[in-house]
Structure of 3-isopropylmalate dehydrogenase:
Amino acid sequence: MGKQVVLLPGDGVGKEIMQSAKVILEAISNEYGYSFTFHEHSIGGDAIDKYGVPLPQQTVEACKEADAILLGAVGGPKWDNISAHNRPEKGLLGIRKEMGLFANLRPIKGINALLSASPLKEEFIKNSDILIIRELTGGLYFGEPSERRDNGNSVVDTLFYRRDEMERIIDKAFQQAMKRSKHLTSVDKANVLESSRLWREVVEEKRQEYPEVEVEHLLVDAAAMKLITQPNAFDVIVTENLFGDILSDEASVLTGSLGMLPSASMREDHVGLYEPVHGSAPDITGKGIANPLGMILSTAMMLRHSFQMDEAATEIERAVNYVLDLGYHTPDLAKIGQKAITTKEMTDLIVDHITLKSISD
Ligand code: NAD
Ligand code: IPM
Ligand code: MN
């Protein structure tokens, strides 16, 4: 039996880039003889429109049966003024929590062809290769009480973590550091937050199990600065939910566009949810020009992490680099030259390269 993949296109450009993911997987299945069965379900604003809730029960059930999940993006101005518990974003937070996907891996790699697309100086971003590991099912996003307003005059958001939630994500980060350059930066706000002080304590305990890994603690404000002034000083970064959200969008500047970044949301087994880091991009929705590469690279992460199809994953990454090296790019990377192309054209070029490569083998 082939791999059962749930597709959650969601809203805005999410729908447009999911089309690219499907086409790429079809090409991979033709070239390598793999079989993928797609099950498309609703989430976010799309689900609010169809079923009145951002995360319908049938979507949760389908995800629980799946070998892996691909998600486009959720949200948009259409749903911006509905109540907090029924917003599209609740659908995304809900599926992460329901599936127990506590570890969000966000790789950021300076791509040679895109060095000039970044507003940062090439000499600083060249060779940058960072893995942000973001805790995904705890912290301010999920802390109780969630009764957030009192007559509109006071509000509360609760930053809650249990020690074991910290232990499992920090352990994951050490494991990843062991597979890479063995350098781990833990980012917190231990000069202010009690949760950060426990976080630091847990990092200090865990490092005893990984004596080869060099550990550094950074406060989040200084980390935000260092990330764009000395990106080469980082290998693996581990941090809590909200800090990881913010730092990863910041780090996307190293690649030239937020549209470039993929992510994998994992738990202890091989099931995972894969999605680009960016959102539904309402300002370019419907124009057919969204950068599909964050989504396509997320698909490669799915092949590698959930299905152990390493060769196919590497082939997608190689094809992406090849097409960028030729100078093709979507308009979000406009600074690199004249050949701005559409989402579909970019996707088709990558498919052509995947297909050609296997013919020449
Ligand atoms: P956004 O990430 O959607 O867009 C920020 C900027 O980056 C925009 O100028 C957009 O055009 C650009 N951009 C993003 N992805 C791009 C791509 N693939 N190609 C080219 N340009 C791209 O963030 P936002 O505007 O703050 O949020 C819009 C909506 O998306 C909100 O409702 C937000 O809650 C939601 N959101 C969802 C996710 C998700 O589903 N994972 C992530 C972030 C934001
Ligand atoms: C992300 C997004 C989400 C988050 C939102 C849409 C809930 O910004 O995946 O980075 O904050 O986790
Ligand atoms: Mn985000």
Q: What stands out?
A: The chain has two domains: 1-107+262-361, 119-255. The radius of gyration is 20 Å. The mean pLDDT is 95.
